[in-house]
Amino acid sequence: MKEYFAFQWHITDECDQRCKHCYIFSENNCKHLDAMTWEQIQETFYNCMDFCEVYGRLPYFYITGGDPILHPDFWRLLALLKEHDISFAILGNPFHLTDEVCMRLKGYGCRKYQLSLDGMRETHDWFRKPGSFDCTLEKIGCINRAGIRSVVMTTVSGANISEVPDIIDTVVKAGADVYAFARYCPTSGEKDTGMTPQDYRQLLDICYQKYQKYEAEGCKTCFNKKDHLWTLYEYEKGIFKIPEDAQDGMIYGGCNCGNCHMTILPTGDIYACRRVQNSKVGNVFSDRIANVWICRMEAYRDYSKFEKCAKCELLPYCRGCPAVASGKDGNFYAADPQCWKEV
């Protein structure tokens, strides 16, 4: 059975928010907004399909931006994906969603629509824009009514870590299908997420107890433990156990960078991970992705280089978040700043 390969495809930088933690706008140095032409979109799509054919993978596209729905050829792209029976999800804003738009998305085969909540009302609207919090909660209903899985994601930092438990309650009440959080990756102007390892472990403990309570009550929301430090947390609690038949040198989980994921920007630039600022490995308009994968992406698969994780028994399963480590000092293989394990 073929495995999926995920392409996080940013088709445009255009967006009607200016989020303070956005990679495009947070450093206030974006001189212009990029977007692919229809010809470039087609070229990118067939380059991705060529890659999947060469390596025997099934493509899965996360169409995003900016806000992808603002691209003039957005619906044309979805028609192309439907024509080839390709699975996809949308990572976007809530502002242009209506029942009619969501039904149209469903008709083209959209499986998931991911929205963001980065705090309770005052904090979220400070991060994004006034009214965004209420609009996001409202549009969860539009997504659900269309039969698309509604996903809510939180980017956690020292600015909002104390609000995450309340965000969980709010998301459950709104009826979201999936909730997850990941950590903020510092940009070049910052070097710290504002959380100590102990702060973050305490958050995981609080969230774990809350998840257990909701699951016991039959809550419909699925809690996706997206951050790989969940593996360390569950290992310490005896929930996760290293399989007895695990083979030395094999990678079974953890960060997907260099494994089953890559990012494509509106400029055509290929990144090993969008959250790793210095991870450009090629360009779809000048490079064959299949060649980039076997050559330049190899630099992100040298697991022996992890300065801390290589000494840990959880190397094949965890590795924390190299993007957060890279955001701190530019070193992909540095120790995760929020990892509390001593090795």
From TrEMBL:
The lineage of its organism: Bacteria, Bacillati, Bacillota, Clostridia, Eubacteriales. NCBIfam families: rSAM_ACGX, rSAM_more_4Fe4S. This is Radical SAM protein. Keywords: 4Fe-4S, Iron, Iron-sulfur, Metal-binding, S-adenosyl-L-methionine. Its cofactor is [4Fe-4S] cluster. Residues 1-213 form the Radical SAM core domain. Pfam families: Radical_SAM (PF04055), SPASM (PF13186). It comes from Ruthenibacterium lactatiformans. One of its GO terms (molecular function) is 4 iron, 4 sulfur cluster binding. It comes from the Bacteria.
